[in-house]
Amino acid sequence: MLFRCHLKRALPQKVSCRFCAVMGKLQSKLKYSTYKYSRPDGFRDERTQTKAFQEYSPAHVDTVSVVAALNSDLCVSGGKDKTVVAYNWRTGNVVKRLKGHEREITKIACIHKSGQFFSASRDKMVMMWDLQGSSQPRQQFSGHSMVVTGLAVSPDTSQLCTGSRDNTLLLWDVGTGQCAERASVSRNLVTHLCWVPREPYILQTSEDKTIRLWDSRGLQVAHVFPAKQHIQTYCEVSEDGHKCISCSSGFGGEGCEATLWDLRQTRNRICEYKGHFQTVASCVFLPRALALMPMIATSSHDCKVKIWNQDSGACLFTLSLDGSGPLTSLAVADTVSLLCASFSRGIRLLRVDDSRGLELQEVAGF
């Protein structure tokens, strides 16, 4: 779409040039993108859309490793620049930059509807931050001998569970910063942790290709799900605590899937979601307000975000974020928005639109 000045004959040169400048700025915010649309009947077509796209000031100067939603306006992210950033994704403004870690940030865990959150790092440390406080960490947790790769806060926010490549899980008292429990399982290189809502259980994925359910009361393994064929990179629990998703590493379409599990009595595998061609790094349950059917979303090192029918396993939509490099993290921002962290292009703000059938649009970046 090109804007040309047709007013030069009728208006003075200065006025017409201003008009061209305004139109040029508007044009720079319009972005063409091609995406694949998968209809429920299995037919796939390509659509080209033109939409307003806003490029905000970047949150980080290097690869973004993780992003998490703090509340309906703010997200918290971390990456290779060793900085934790609280960002208002609605306005495109940095709220606070926090420095304290000596190496790359690996995980973020937020206490929702508050200004408090935790960060983990390759420096083996975990730090607690408060947006209403100073720029110094409110609490520090030191106990792992290798990079911290798992971080989960209890529903009542009194406890923090951390996991590491040192095969160890630690349970902390948030108030005192003291370690209350320690557990170790051979070859259990932790990749992610999440706490089951309203329960004393913690879900954990591992490089040994298994998913474990831990009981925080004594920090004992309560259940081990059947091992997968590839490393389990991430896990997420549904809001009702009845189901969980895990996702797999892989390449060339081997592995590269997400798996839905029953967390109740049977604890069986319910469904698999196959279609990515490289490691699936993150997965989330989408808010039920988006559609009549339950849905999940996945992000992958293949630069794609996919939306799936949770029950049938059908891929409903694929968005390619070309040039972003591996997609590292995915978070639900509000009922229609997702935040996607990437290796090369910072954080992308994505919006679900069902006005013409289900679509996922890239609307901003920072």
From TrEMBL:
PROSITE patterns: WD_REPEATS_1 (PS00678), WD_REPEATS_2 (PS50082), WD_REPEATS_REGION (PS50294). This is WD repeat-containing protein 31 isoform X1. InterPro entries: WD40/YVTN_repeat-like_dom_sf (IPR015943), WD40_PAC1 (IPR020472), WD40_repeat_CS (IPR019775), WD40_repeat_dom_sf (IPR036322), WD40_rpt (IPR001680), WDR31 (IPR040066). Keywords: Repeat, WD repeat. WD repeats lie at residues 98-139, 141-182, 183-215, 273-318. It comes from Tursiops truncatus (Atlantic bottle-nosed dolphin). Coiled coil: none annotated. It holds the Pfam family WD40. The keyword Repeat applies.
